[in-house]
Design goal:
Elements (H helix, E strand, L loop, with lengths): L4 H18 L12 E6 L2 H16 L4 E8 L1 H9 L5 E5 H7 L9 H13 L3 E3 L9 E6 H7 L14 E4 L10 H8 L5 E4 L3 H10 L4 E5 L10 E4 L11 E6 H7 L1 H13 L2 H12 L4 H11 L2
Parallel strand pairs: 1-2, 6-7, 6-8
Antiparallel strand pairs: 3-10, 4-10, 5-8, 5-9
Helix pairs in contact: 2-10, 2-12, 4-5, 11-12
């Protein structure tokens, strides 16, 4: 498959920076091996990369920020080929990308399965956080109260027949296909939504009955929307987890691992919602990360 121009450019720039760095004689000391941190090409990943980078800087690690390099198809090969040292990942998606056909429901088991696959490439999978970014099924608070629904399985027989979500939802295994196969749910009408904000507003206005959103959507901070429990575990665990090249961990030692694990131990889904919302409102990624770390010393 031909890479889009933006992806091709990302690869070229990344390769160029590595080539240029390698053309000079190596210096002595930590400056000769900075920790190269990259993210995927969406805002939440950039926020996570910056949080982990700043946490590492606080314990003396020298950081080289590579920025939003591209999608997983670009970033993970860059890690495997020793061009990137650290990237924040999502356990379930990373495991599927690594070739797994099934994903354990427990995030730690899924992370262990990912670690087994990553080990052959010299990549360590650290402790997963409690922060999860996965598909969620949402209804309005009024609808939930009126019909007494708290879980996805409760939707059966409610007469809620208008479903809204991304345009690709009808063909996706973790959207309408999965809702049909796992929960036996079908909807009379699918209404494509151009964004999560539109989905939230469509639920509030009654234009759709049920919507698909992401668990870290800042819109879910509002009290008039309710996330239904995925009681049959359709969605894989998508806990945030940093993956780091073994060589970088060995170079920077226990301080680096400790700093990254400390972030993961404190990070929550609610934190991600709020940070995503701050950036959407105009704050910079770097300032949002700095503020979160200041609140979590």
């Amino acid at each position: 498959m031909r890479l889009p121009t933006t992806l091709t450019l990302s690869v070229v720039l990344l390769a160029s920076s590595v080539t240029c760095a390698g053309s000079s004689p190596p210096a002595d000391g930590p400056e000769s091996q900075p920790l190269r941190v990259a993210s995927f090409d969406f805002v939440e990943s950039e926020i996570l990369a910056e949080v982990y980078a700043q946490a590492a800087e606080r314990v003396g690690v020298t950081i080289e920020r590579l920025g939003a390099v591209g999608p997983r198809e670009v970033v993970i090969p860059a890690v495997r080929n020793e061009h990137v040292d650290l990237v924040p990942e999502y356990v379930g998606s990373a495991l599927r990308f690594a070739g797994a056909t099934e994903t354990p429901g427990d995030p730690r088991e899924a992370a262990s399965a990912l670690a087994e696959r990553a080990d052959e490439f010299g990549i360590a999978v650290l402790t997963p956080s409690a922060a999860v970014d996965q598909n969620v099924v949402v209804v309005s608070t009024d609808t939930a109260a009126l019909l007494g629904v708290t879980a996805i399985s409760d939707l059966a027989g409610t007469g809620l027949n208008r479903f809204g979500g991304p345009a690709e939802c009808p063909e996706r295994p973790f959207c309408l296909v999965g809702l049909r196969e796992t929960y036996g749910l079908t909807f009379d009408e699918f209404v494509a939504q151009p964004s999560l904000a539109f989905t939230a507003e469509a639920l509030r206005r009654g234009e759709i009955d049920v919507g698909l959103m992401f668990s870290t959507s800042p819109e879910l901070e509002a009290p008039d929307l309710v996330v239904l429990a995925d009681d049959r575990r359709l969605q894989p665990p998508e806990n945030v987890v940093p993956i780091v090249r073994d060589e970088a961990l060995e170079f920077w030692g226990a301080d680096l691992r400790g700093a990254l694990d400390d972030v993961s131990a404190m990070l929550t889904t609610t934190d991600l919602r709020r940070m995503n919302g701050l950036v959407a409102d105009g704050a910079t990624v770097r300032n949002v990360a700095r503020q979160w770390l200041a609140e979590h010393p």
